[in-house]
Amino acid sequence: MSVAIYGIKACDTMKKAMAWLDTHDIAYTFHDYKKEGVDRTRLLDWVKEVGWEELINRSGTTFRKLPEADKTDLTEEKAIQLMIDNPSMIRRPVLEASTRIIIGFKPEKYADFFRV
Hints:
Elements: E1 3-7, H1 12-23, E2 29-32, H2 33-36, H3 40-50, H4 52-55, H5 61-64, H6 68-71, H7 76-85, E3 94-97, E4 100-103, H8 107-114
Parallel strand pairs: 1-2
Antiparallel strand pairs: 1-3, 3-4
């Protein structure tokens, strides 16, 4: 199974998720939004899977610092463009494995998915 994890290296939740994967000997590739950005096609796939509301991190500082006009009346297309322009706004981590994605990190969720 191919596993990829997306996020920002310095994020504490990312560190916990990657440590969990390492502890359970699950090989993965890491995609850093800060260095590599986010691909629109991939983001659209995630939106189809879980919805833009699940992906956008409204409680993070990046979202809170946006001009009020950007934060109000969010539509799917507006949210997608905001996440492309500001990848730090995407909830972390996003874990892709097989044909499934998991948003955020909870040890029990990962354990259930990987059956460990």
